[in-house]
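Please produce the structure of this protein holding NDP.
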Amino acid sequence: MKEFGLFIDGEWHAAKGGKTAPTINPATEEPWATVAVADREDVRKAVAAAKKAHDRGVWRNKSPQERGEILQKVAMAMFERQDEIAAAEVQDGGGTMRKAMSMDIPGAAQTFMHFGQFICGDEYKAMICEEFDEMVPVPSKNLVVREPIGVCAGITPWNFPLIMAAWKIAPALAAGNTVVIKPASVTPVTALMLGEICTKAGVPAGVVNVISGPGGTAGEELAMHPDIGKIAFTGSTEVGRRIMQLGAGTLKKVTLELGGKSPNIILDDANLDTAALGALFATFLHQGQICESGTRVLVHEKIHDQLIEKMIAGIQRIQIGDTMDPTTGMGPLVSAAQRETVEKYVGIGKEQGAKCVVGGKRPAAMNKGYYFEPTIFDDVDNKMRIAQEEIFGPVVSVIRYKDEDEAVRIANDSVYGLGGAVWSANKDRAVAVAKRIETGTVWINDYHMINLRFPFGGYKQSGVGRELGKWGLAEYHELKHIHVGEDTPPEGKFYLQLLLN
Ligand code: NDP
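Below is the modeled complex.
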């Protein structure tokens, strides 16, 4: 069995209290590694290491070029260890090897590559120091500079442990900050490995610290700690709210990437073969455990029957099974508890009158692992709980609409506002619909195509602030205005008369 400690100040440490916990492979229900469990004191030690590294300037005093080159080395080091990291990601979280090799490893490594390259370029140079000459209220040169915040904390979820850790670490480091990362307790391993990879690639000790521990103690300690200037969280809306409350005590900057109930709108002129398969991809990729999953398929009544037929046919092409087998498209859910949540919602859907046309149960062929069949509910009313609440499993609700206005009204009738899509043969028409949807991302004729160059985040209760792109990077900076006045005798300063006779 593999063993992992806490990664603090460039080294592995046991937890102060000596506590460890097994991490379970969701496909086998067996433990495959043990991980040290941090308590509040371990968290304080990690924050102290990050603060010391920041105060000493070992990272922020490097030029953007130097930092950028090291971040690019982190990316290359991830590719060099990709087999080992992918195996850990699959065993920890239950995703497929196919996804790990084509999405998790490249997605995480490219996050470091992207931010590393961006800060070496002219656009970042212009972004961190802008100059303005002004005559009012007095002649002056004005510098608007962006500086690192200090110690940033990242609290990450279990659905994409490696990518989420990369989304928190890479932009924070690019901006010159130091970090403490707390991964989800059920999937801590790849974030811990990433801490070590960063250090071995040249990030100085103390700049990246990763500690695994319970949200209720280790997470809350981070959210309250006075030496942390910013907290970036991805997870449930409920915990996001709690983190905002705790962070308010020391007025931390907070970015939150939370739940969703994203609308996937199929217009009546869409290519139905593509839209049907796109709707399956939008909902069943990674067993539906993705915040921006297109869990509400809004379909024009005229094409409803054809779409459902094609979706049901498409499901036959999804192989459920051994996560290590490269032909497997769907693995298990992350935990027994998550499968119970999904089962509860399937029951609620049936009780409230939705029609379960496919799935709705555990696959008969699998006697081990937290597997659940891809499930389609038809005849869903948007007021039903399965259309309003985040299920975070392979369950899609199909809702009919009569015209575009009704589609937009249903799409926006949600407390969430994270993602969504519009499928249509007419791109202008689709863009016009996209502009009316209250979400942070809308794809047209695609789904899940997150692009590192562009902002990602939510409207309404799906979040606060943005990650990725120059907009996400900006969130890791303080903004400072430096006013450079004229060096004159006192008579040159008219404003002195406001006080002096
Ligand atoms: P949580 O929001 O509870 O967990 C996300 C992270 O927050 C984990 O690292 C967790 O630690 C930590 N955490 C939990 N409680 C606190 C706290 N009080 N203070 C600080 N940190 C805390 O998600 P769950 O794992 O419980 O999943 C529940 C639901 O959340 C899912 O069913 C899904 O609907 C949604 N979710 C959304 C995600 C997204 O990408 N937007 C991702 C994951 C879940 P620990 O693991 O130790 O509890």
